[in-house]
Amino acid sequence: MRATTPMPHPLHRHKPYSNFVLCFDLDGTLIDTAPDLVRVTNEMIAKLGLGKTHYAKARQEVGYGSRALIANACTRAGFDLTTEQLEDLQKQFLTRYAETIADHSQPFHGVMDTLKQLRRGGATLVVCTNKPGYLARPLLEHLRMTWLFENIVGGDEAPRSKPHASHIYMAAGLQNRTKDIIMVGDSYPDIRAGHNAGVPTILMRYGYTAVKHHKLRPTIALDRFRDIPLALEQIQKKPLRFRSGS
């Protein structure tokens, strides 16, 4: 449940976001990881004698994980992949991706400046990603972003990963239970997790989802990351609550 946002004390007006805990998805929200993930997918299917997969279609599948990337690429190529082959390629994928995790991945435009602005304004920033923690942390470290976040919780570290509400609660931290938690993401697991947790959601339209944005029912949808501070002002003026899902 969201706490009612108090009026800022005059001494704290320079910290306008101090009552917010912003839970950020990683892939497709903070960082454009598709170039590296699709590159490694192509390296894996090349072992089967297949050519490069369709980039735009693979980009929309990033949120479903390495197994889906490989399987769908093979399906598009008309290759009948066995379960044994898929399991073997997935293991190789994870090893190769960990070795070259940030070769071409970069924060989306405006992300770094906006995160710094939010942090200066008193917001608590955390990462709530279905990416395994052992991959999420090195990626953020490579891109010199780790220092911006109070907490980083991967999908393998939460009691249940998004879209389950517990992932958001763990990332936000019990010490922040009286603050206004907001989930910021680009796809169904992010927005649904926010609904299940009963917190407002911000959808980044530039992300990886293939689902029509209006069907996801976010509190606010944005085209630019730098507009998040304006979205927070809007949420403060008109707090929205969601009933937890089943």
UniProtKB/TrEMBL annotation:
It holds the Pfam family HAD_2. Gene3D superfamilies: HAD superfamily/HAD-like (3.40.50.1000), Putative phosphatase, domain 2 (1.10.150.240). GO terms for cellular component: cytosol. It catalyses: 2-phosphoglycolate + H2O = glycolate + phosphate. It is an enzyme of class 3 (hydrolase). Pathway: Organic acid metabolism; glycolate biosynthesis; glycolate from 2-phosphoglycolate: step 1/1. One of its GO terms (molecular function) is phosphoglycolate phosphatase activity. GO terms for biological process: DNA repair. Its EC number is 3.1.3.18. Signal peptide: none annotated. Belongs to the HAD-like hydrolase superfamily. CbbY/CbbZ/Gph/YieH family. PANTHER family: PHOSPHOGLYCOLATE PHOSPHATASE. This is phosphoglycolate phosphatase. It comes from Litorimonas taeanensis. The lineage of its organism: Bacteria, Pseudomonadati, Pseudomonadota, Alphaproteobacteria, Maricaulales.
